[in-house]
Inverse folding.
């Protein structure tokens, strides 16, 4: 996938239900239970996280804090940069429309 296509794919996924909300929520590492309220159903959350992982925005890790371990979700370095750019854009937008 070339850069233009990849950029469009990132925008497409972030514009879907819960995409941007998940990105913002993952500013700090989160467990599944803390992400569930961001979208209407668990299936959408699961699919969106997989899309964000495929694009290199989110990483999924297993923490050995229980016998079975806990799955946690966090932003990759690319995801953190992307979030910072989007937060700056959001701030700029807010100043323009006021």
């Amino acid at each position: 996938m070339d850069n233009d296509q990849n950029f469009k794919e990132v925008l497409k996924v972030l514009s879907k239900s819960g995409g941007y909300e998940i990105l913002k929520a993952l500013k700090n590492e989160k467990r599944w239970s803390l992400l569930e309220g961001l979208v209407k159903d668990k299936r959408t959350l699961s699919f969106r996280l997989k899309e964000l992982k495929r694009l290199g925005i989110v990483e999924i890790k297993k923490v050995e804090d229980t016998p079975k371990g806990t799955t946690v979700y966090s932003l990759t370095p690319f995801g953190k940069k992307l979030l910072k750019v989007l937060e700056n854009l959001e701030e700029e937008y807010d100043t323009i429309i006021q």
Observations:
- The beta strands are 30-31, 58-63, 70-75.
- Residues 60 and 73 are 5 Å apart (CA to CA).
- The chain has five helices and three strands.
